[in-house]
């Protein structure tokens, strides 16, 4: 009976070796002994014995075959274990990925508006529109190219932009209508925009003041408000004082606006009462007069007043829109009334959008 396990090889190998030895070697060994027990060798037998391989060489193939078989069995077992372990790791990785994906699907993604970038784009659009109205389309293209080539991220701190000539030309050529603009034409536009030139190691930098452009937009907005509220003559006086930016006597105002002194004085007093102008009284002995009145526009105070009025106006328009919407829902039968309310709502919403643009000039820029 064979023993299980590794003992089979230990028992089978000697038995197999004995049978082979008995089968192949015994016929030769019997002839080697004579009746007296002494060995007698013939020439043929000596040649056969010399040519025969040793026992180790004769049975080395069997040993190698048995060892190779055991190695193959171990290799197969190891491969099966590795495959099982690999499948297990792959399964665990897939489970981890599914768990992560489920976590991502269950978590709400939060989005935030880039307010600074949005205001910066609106500020660029406002400046470009103002320059286009004053200097033309080519100047607007150059200014837009300078703003885009700068690296400002905050609209409030973007009071000026600087760029080299090569960057300006490269950005201009990438815009519609910019391919036909020559270098000399771009330099002429930069002079119109009153750009300052600063020479550095890397080359000349051209700087344009966006703050001045925004101030022009603010001036235009307030001048338009004065024109609508007080009339053409008041607009002329206010525009003159805005441009001069200093205290101006009434005689000089009357002469430059071609208005009579009484009419000019009446308009100045009205604007002063509504806090659109500042007035200072100076005691002088000139031409028999002891007092002289000087007038100017205090932008800081006036801008706050205008912004406050805009906020109140926006509130009133919003309330009016809500009232119109409520009436629109309640008037389902009257077709003419519905059409009238719809037109009124469109006008109010359009006015509110324009007012929002004006508020941004004074509040965000």
From TrEMBL:
<keyword id="KW-0539">Nucleus</keyword>
<dbReference type="GO" id="GO:0005666">
    <property type="term" value="C:RNA polymerase III complex"/>
</dbReference>
<comment type="function">
    <text>DNA-dependent RNA polymerase catalyzes the transcription of DNA into RNA using the four ribonucleoside triphosphates as substrates. Specific core component of RNA polymerase III which synthesizes small RNAs, such as 5S rRNA and tRNAs.</text>
</comment>
<feature type="transmembrane region" description="Helical">
    <location>
        <begin position="7"/>
        <end position="25"/>
    </location>
</feature>
<keyword id="KW-0812">Transmembrane</keyword>
<dbReference type="GO" id="GO:0003697">
    <property type="term" value="F:single-stranded DNA binding"/>
</dbReference>
<keyword id="KW-0240">DNA-directed RNA polymerase</keyword>
<feature type="domain" description="DNA-directed RNA polymerase III subunit RPC3 winged-helix">
    <location>
        <begin position="222"/>
        <end position="296"/>
    </location>
</feature>
<keyword id="KW-0804">Transcription</keyword>
<dbReference type="Pfam" id="PF22536">
    <property type="entry name" value="WHD_POLR3C"/>
</dbReference>
<dbReference type="Pfam" id="PF05645">
    <property type="entry name" value="RNA_pol_Rpc82"/>
</dbReference>
<comment type="subunit">
    <text>Component of the RNA polymerase III (Pol III) complex consisting of 17 subunits.</text>
</comment>
<dbReference type="InterPro" id="IPR036388">
    <property type="entry name" value="WH-like_DNA-bd_sf"/>
</dbReference>
<keyword id="KW-0472">Membrane</keyword>
<comment type="similarity">
    <text>Belongs to the eukaryotic RPC3/POLR3C RNA polymerase subunit family.</text>
</comment>
<feature type="domain" description="RNA polymerase III Rpc82 C -terminal">
    <location>
        <begin position="78"/>
        <end position="216"/>
    </location>
</feature>
<dbReference type="InterPro" id="IPR055207">
    <property type="entry name" value="POLR3C_WHD"/>
</dbReference>
<keyword id="KW-1133">Transmembrane helix</keyword>
<protein>
    <recommendedName>
        <fullName>DNA-directed RNA polymerase III subunit RPC3</fullName>
    </recommendedName>
</protein>
<dbReference type="InterPro" id="IPR008806">
    <property type="entry name" value="RNA_pol_III_Rpc82_C"/>
</dbReference>
<dbReference type="GO" id="GO:0006351">
    <property type="term" value="P:DNA-templated transcription"/>
</dbReference>
<dbReference type="InterPro" id="IPR039748">
    <property type="entry name" value="RPC3"/>
</dbReference>
